[in-house]
Amino acid sequence: MIYSQDYARSIDDVRVIVRHAKLDHKNLTNTAQAIYYPRDEPGHDLGNIKLLEVDEHILQAVENNDGVCFKGALNEKVVFCTESRTYEVKEAEISNSLLLVNGLKLAQATSRSPIKSPKGGVNTSMDSSMEEEEDAETIDTIDDVERREVVKVFHDYFELRQVKPKYRKIIDLLRLTRYAGPENEHLIDRSLLFRFGQLLDTVQCSKDEFHEGLKKYRAIEVDDRVRMLDIEYEYRVLTLLLGVLLENSWELDAIDKDTTLDAMQGIIPYEIVNGTFDVYTIPSERVPGRWQYREDMVCALFAEKILQNGLKFHIDEFLVTWQEALPEGFEVSEKYLRGIGIVDREGSVPCVRGLNEADLPMNLLVRLSTLFRTKERWNLEQIEPYIECFATPAVGVTSILAKYTRSLVVKGVRIYVSKH
């Protein structure tokens, strides 16, 4: 490689280098490629070219022309998104300089010999016979030199690591404009409302994960804007929908959607009723064309309504109150409190208190400190919903807890406590 752009390497130059390097001419092909560094002028050593390490999923997405993009605001770490996955982006160093050369040929493409053809590769079986015939005679196989320009010299690249979708921004943005009924819309700053596409571009997750996030946080579209419902209003709407179920004496997995929506005309705006119905129901497995309410989501909303003021309840009293609030056919279960409330049976009085995952800090250490101030001891099932947003396919919740907490085994159950 040479630095001057005014000089072109000749075949004689190449042969001299081969002799100085003590290379065996029999292992060389016909064409040499002379590499020239980028010119120090506009259009060379392009700074906007970056190396990106990709896995099979990303490679397939690029080859299929699926949507891929980078996302990140000024104060956010950049993520890379395909249609269905989110990746953390980190800059990593390359131990040796890596050259990007336009049109560089691989070894087989530089040979015209049938012995070293692209089909058969380098035929080393012929070397011994050639050596016998050429003991004293040296034959130079190189008879052509081609110029190759270096486009860019790389010292680093972008490393991608799959991570959980970053949903927190959905909550932070939509909480500002919670929908509490048409009579309260005059209180909402319309400039803070987001269309679906605008919110998707802002939130750091893939499109498929974004749809899952909207469903997780029970967001719906109202007047072409994505909205979260005020919990009091949402509780009212769901209660009215469940009332239609009771009035028609439907079985829990045989709900008629059209009849339900018709019954709400003039009471609740159609978009609200339709959106809420879609969030809380799934197609019936037993009756084609009918629907059934998701017991986990219905029970969770009723529990959140009871716990929303941060009150502490005796476990038995809470379970009775919770069950009585639900329509007939729905059964409460502590598993439905996942991410919205915690059960503490270790104190003098077994109790339940509200603790919504969406209200906790997004800094892992600060979150752990908050959790251990709320409750001194946690088992894995209790703490997992509050930590899983920090997990990755490579680093699970248990690995995070092993690093940042102390653990002990009590009566055969692993318990996690604060390190400090």
UniProtKB/TrEMBL annotation:
Ranges of Acidic residues composition bias in the record? 129-138
Q: Which family does it belong to?
A: Belongs to the DCC1 family.
Q: What cellular component GO annotations does this protein have?
A: chromatin; chromosome, centromeric region; Ctf18 RFC-like complex
Biological process (GO) annotations? DNA replication; maintenance of mitotic sister chromatid cohesion
Residues annotated as region Disordered?
A: 115-138
Q: Which organism is it from?
A: Anopheles atroparvus
Q: What's in the keyword line of the UniProt record?
A: DNA replication
Q: What is this protein called?
A: Sister chromatid cohesion protein DCC1
